Structure to design on (601 residues):
């Protein structure tokens, strides 16, 4: 892992994230550091007090005060250890919660790009598992400070007792330093690989859970299980490597540390024979030698810190994906005119939309049709700024969407999707999601318009039924999604294949409400059925990322290639020809002008 944030943006984001998270629990981190340092100081003081008490006992001098000091230090160490445990748990929990809130908000701010780049399963793994591991960083750093203070304090205490003791210890210190450096480097690498494998398993599992009906229908449970668990060997190798790194470090520590301790004790014994040290000082020196060579504690702390830093880097990778930025312009009064000017959008290295120009007058309906992969859903996402184009701009009533304030944009644009996510505690809350002031009357009127009121009333608690406890079909879910869009209001309504699961009668009732005469919102409709396209004021025919033609459905129907979009045996359907002819044709243009009624690119 690169150490410089300029060279490694993810590492830079991770450090910034952890600094901010540490400041969030700053007072508790300071308290943890102080408690850890006091505990280390008490631990360093105890051998000296024990040694002094032993010398007094051997000399038959009064030692009660020193024995009581020993007992007090032991009691203090117990209390400090309890305080450390509580503070460590508190700091870990607060930091983890802060990281999850911060990253969740960032992911939602980024929008669909985050799931496109990382995958929903991997994102969940990062925001749950990696956030929990990264959340241990502030407490781990405080513990590392105390763990380092122990050996340093032990070495200083040896020097105070006799400089020969410190010299013996320093002779073996470089070996300990190299050992700790290797542990930190190798653990970071293996922990990163381990967490990456975990993310791939989570991503595959999320896909399998989402497609569980398909898996069950195909009878491929065993094959899918093998696919989900395919990264397990890599996970195992990375995990075993972490244990081997720590095992080798512990083995070397077992080899080096006792030798240093024996050397210190041996020199202390020689000094005792020469009457340069007392028995109590030899006892203290032996304890300080153990503290000074406390590599085992340092190895564990370093390994934990390395894993936390690797997890933080994975969070930093999420942070490198910029969140959507909004402007400060207000949306002026207007009918909801939508314009796409030279819009180009690329996905996965492929140009999906290429220089698209469209003008949808306010209060009219434009149906977008095309074969699968033509870019219909992407155009719908661009129209309401669920994503941004790579080139060109999208305007609403003359204002580029990028320059609008967040509240103005989201208040002006409503969406309904083919597979709506029904969020909220109850059905009523799910319909009112995003509505500024969702009154019961507004919610029920929107449900009636979407033909959802009847089946909602049949639920156990009606509109108060929890969404999770509301059995519903795909068509009923779509109707709830449509009700949410109708309740939202606004001047632009975008339906991304939001009628696909409805039966013919229900679809006709809803299209009558959508496309009825009189003033209303501007509607952009992704359509796969000829009957739906026939109800729109105009149709934009997408083909190979471009607007092939724009015109009335019955006029485009004369083109064999247009008819082929709906299938060989498709029927133009829709309203009768006379009814179609009475609908005014909006000034909706494609990339170039063509004959009257139909414009072609």
């Amino acid at each position: 892992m690169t150490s410089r944030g300029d060279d490694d943006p993810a590492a830079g984001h991770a450090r910034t994230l952890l600094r901010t998270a540490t400041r969030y629990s700053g007072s508790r981190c300071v308290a943890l550091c102080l408690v850890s340092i006091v505990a280390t100081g008490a631990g360093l003081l105890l051998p000296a007090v024990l040694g002094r008490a032993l010398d007094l006992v051997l000399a038959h001098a009064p030692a009660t005060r020193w024995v009581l000091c020993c007992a007090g230090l032991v009691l203090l160490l117990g209390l400090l250890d309890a305080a450390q445990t509580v503070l460590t748990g508190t700091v870990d929990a607060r930091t983890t919660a802060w990281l999850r809130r911060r990253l969740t908000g960032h992911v939602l701010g980024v929008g669909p790009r985050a799931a496109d780049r990382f995958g929903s399963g991997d994102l969940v793994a990062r925001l749950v598992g990696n956030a929990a591991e990264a959340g241990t960083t502030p407490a781990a750093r405080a513990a590392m400070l105390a763990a380092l203070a122990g050996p340093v304090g032990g070495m200083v205490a040896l020097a105070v007792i006799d400089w020969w003791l410190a010299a013996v210890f320093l002779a073996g210190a470089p070996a300990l330093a190299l050992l700790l450096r290797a542990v930190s480097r190798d653990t970071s690498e293996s922990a990163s690989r381990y967490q990456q494998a975990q993310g791939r398993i989570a991503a595959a599992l999320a896909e399998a859970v989402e497609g569980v009906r398909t898996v069950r229908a195909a009878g491929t449970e065993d094959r899918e299980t093998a696919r989900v668990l395919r990264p397990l060997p890599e996970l195992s190798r990375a995990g075993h490597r972490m244990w081997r790194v720590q095992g080798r470090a512990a083995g070397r520590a077992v080899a080096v540390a006792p030798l240093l301790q024996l050397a210190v004790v041996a020199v202390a014994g020689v000094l005792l024979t020469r009457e340069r040290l007392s028995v109590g000082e030899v006892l203290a020196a032996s304890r300080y030698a153990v503290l000074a060579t406390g590599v085992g504690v340092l190895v564990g702390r370093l390994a934990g810190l390395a894993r936390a830093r690797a997890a933080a880097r994975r969070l930093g990778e999420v942070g490198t994906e910029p969140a959507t930025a909004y402007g400060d312009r207000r949306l002026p009064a207007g009918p909801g005119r939508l314009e796409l000017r030279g819009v180009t959008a690329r996905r996965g290295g492929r140009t999906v939309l290429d220089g698209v120009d469209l003008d949808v007058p306010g209060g009219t309906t434009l149906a977008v049709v095309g074969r699968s992969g033509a870019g219909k859903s992407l155009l719908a996402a661009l129209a309401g700024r669920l994503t941004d184009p790579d080139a060109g701009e999208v305007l609403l009533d003359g204002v580029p969407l990028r320059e609008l304030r967040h509240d103005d944009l989201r208040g002006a644009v409503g969406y309904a999707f083919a597979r709506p996510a029904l969020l909220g505690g109850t059905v009523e809350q799910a319909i009112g999601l995003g509505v500024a002031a969702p009154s019961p009357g507004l919610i029920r009127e929107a449900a009636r318009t979407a033909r959802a009121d009847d089946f909602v009333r049949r639920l156990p608690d009606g509109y108060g039924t929890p969404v999770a406890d509301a059995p519903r079909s795909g068509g009923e879910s779509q109707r709830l999604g449509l009700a949410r869009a109708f309740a939202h209001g606004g001047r632009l309504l975008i339906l991304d294949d939001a009628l696909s699961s409805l039966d013919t009668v229900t679809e006709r009732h809803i299209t009558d409400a959508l496309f009825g005469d009189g003033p209303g919102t501007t509607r952009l409709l992704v359509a796969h059925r000829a009957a739906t396209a026939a109800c729109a004021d105009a149709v934009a025919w997408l083909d190979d990322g471009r607007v092939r033609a724009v015109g009335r459905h019955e006029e485009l129907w004369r083109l064999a290639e247009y008819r082929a979009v709906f299938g060989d045996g498709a029927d133009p359907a829709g309203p009768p020809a006379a009814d179609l002819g009475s609908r005014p044709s909006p000034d909706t243009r494609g990339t170039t002008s063509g004959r009257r009624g139909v414009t072609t690119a």
